[in-house]
Amino acid sequence: MGTELxxxxxxxxxxxxxxxxxxxxxxxxxxxxxxxxxxxIFANMHLHHQNRHxxxxxxxxxxxxxxxxxxxxxxxxxxxxxxCLPFKLxxxxxxxxxxxxxxxxxxxxxxxxxxxxxxxxxxxxTCDYKTLSKTNSCKECYQTNTRASVLYYISSEDDYKxxxxxxxxxxxxxxxxFDLWRxxxxxxxLSFSNHSVLLNEKLYFLKEDKAEDLYSxxxxxxxxxxxxxxVATPILKNSHTSCLGFTILRGCIHIWxxxxxxxxxxxxxxxxxxxxxx
Length: 278
Prior knowledge:
Blueprint: H1 7-14, H2 20-25, H3 31-37, H4 40-50, E1 54-60, E2 65-71, E3 83-84, E4 94-99, E5 102-109, E6 112-122, E7 129-131, E8 148-154, E9 159-165, E10 170-175, E11 180-186, E12 192-199, E13 202-209, E14 214-221, E15 228-230, E16 235-236, E17 241-249, E18 252-259, E19 262-268, E20 274-275
Antiparallel strand pairs: 1-2, 2-3, 4-5, 5-6, 6-7, 8-9, 9-10, 10-11, 12-13, 13-14, 14-15, 14-16, 17-18, 18-19, 19-20
């Protein structure tokens, strides 16, 4: 006679190891399972075991907007069947940023191309979504020309947050748990590109000093001070040098630099020194 598995083993050990499509099906088992499977806790458990990247494709017709995804680790499986967006959409939406399967989209404002009427956090897997409150925000938070937009998760607070750097270099942070915005600081003294990367709950930006012809890296501690500090040795640039972006490789920050006819990869070590050309 077989041994019956306890619910804890099923929920905590088995379901997080299932493919996302299969895990979603189990939300129909009971209200308790639905409540657990739609929490950030389960999302992080599932991400830990799966850690698979997916691409999202949008398709528009005169009647509806649908989306499909493809698993980058198994492209031979092809695109998923088309699914309708769970929220109303009068025009094309913009994907602003994403993290851990959560997507932030902007809904264009009718008649004003430079503004969004709403910002939405959306989980394409479960089709759950949340229209962000505008409490304590400003008009610039809903403009399309923000300098940076980063979605992240703070484990100690069990909260997803959206950080926006407005065109005038003010920083606003939205909390999904409390459904409100707050302003942290102004960074008028800095001029940086839209390249950013998240590592160990610190956000790193590429700062560009056009007067001195330098690139350097600055960080923002998302857990404590929420202040910018310089963390890396400046990189000399010239008319033939440009930054292609950040990436995380083996737990270290790397920068792709385009230098005339070649692309160099620079790695930042723990001291903030940058090692290039490898």
